[in-house]
Queue: 2 jobs
Job 1
Amino acid sequence: MSGKTPKLMPQEARYIVVMDYMILPLDFRDLRYALAKNGYELASGKNIAPPPTRIMFSGEIARMKETTVVADSESSEIGTVSRSLQEAYASFNDLARVISSELDVDLNEKVKRYFVSAHYRVATGKLPLREIPRAENKEAVAKFSEIMGQNLSSFSIRLTPKDASLNQENWLEIAIEPDLLDESKYHIGIIYRNLEKERTDMFVRDLESNLLKIIKLIEG
């Protein structure tokens, strides 16, 4: 088992754009019509008021196979949720194409920030509870152990940009810990925010290979 090739198993991923408008510049009825016209299965739309009433909306809008389109008109967010980040990213690009051609709104224009989140399980054949302490600060953990009166070790690794602020627009957070449902696997959670599409797309492209490199470093 120790020679097992690491296996990355996607759990859920989101690719969201937050637009720089007070309210998302899409009419709910027009959006539903455009998506249905292009093969999306619409979420329930009971009691939709007729024009010219402005409809505020939030949550699931439609589905395409295993991908969900989500939006929040008040926070001016729209994007996709899928099993893997690559699927969410590809689905967002399709969504952006449909909205551009049908509704003349460019989801990559007037962007406040891009938001990406993803969850993975990783199986390497080794136990994370034994491997994660390889990356810990031994001196600090020894002091914690002395304070608590028992031998401690690190349960998780959490990485953020050095000297960053939690409230800044550009952000990265990587959390690595044993999976709570299967301690033989790692759970990795990712949160990423950026103002630039090119940087965000590069992050999406390289993420999975970079995560495997981090796990390899942890396990030495």
Job 2
Amino acid sequence: MKLLSFEETMKRYESGENAFDLAVEKWVRIREAIKSSYSLNHFALIMRGASIRIALCVEYNDNCFLCPLGNICSQEKDGLFRKIVRLLQAYCVAGDILPKSTLIDLVDQLIKELEKTKEECIKLRH
């Protein structure tokens, strides 16, 4: 399981990689890790990986209301990220006895939202 670390994210971002692409990669790796996970320890690692800040957090100095991903990453009760975190917490307790499809579907939805927001930001810049 090779999740994207904060150190790797920042190194790649500082060498010129796109912050949105790195955010998408973080979640693609999480999705792949979920598919192959079977132990409580695996889900705990995924939970930690999901909590790692992304390059946009640094770029916007943790001012989420200014960040284009502020709505996606929101800790609000009904927000997509929060739903994923709550499900990951359940997996940390129950392991893979829960069906993974709901969690994978939510992560796929998050990836689509990240890609959509990237495209919207690109359109605004041009």
